[in-house]
Specification:
Blueprint lengths: L5 H6 L9 E2 L3 E5 L7 E7 L14 H18 L6 E4 L15 E5 L3
Antiparallel strand pairs: 1-2, 2-3, 3-5, 4-5
Amino acid sequence: MEKGCLFCQISHGETSTELLFENDTLVVFKDIHPAAPVHLLIVPKQHIRSINDLQDADRPILAEMLLVARDMAAQSGVATSGYRLFVNVERGGGQVIFHLHLHLIGGWK
């Protein structure tokens, strides 16, 4: 856990954030500033600062993030209508919290 990292605090149960999903590797919760009717964050419990900091050993985490995103899209009712997955990388790419996370957005009519 990285000291002072909000997503580390959330993923380790140190906040009152409602988790929609949790396993040994990941947590999923709603974005507090949603860009769509459904806006979820898929966050590894392991602190990885950004895509630029990934190691070869992190491949299973990435695969799990995508599979959980697929499942959460179905659970949220957007799998059939469509959704978007994206990762912001570094400040110039829109990353605000420097802990790797995957956005799932959808639910537009």
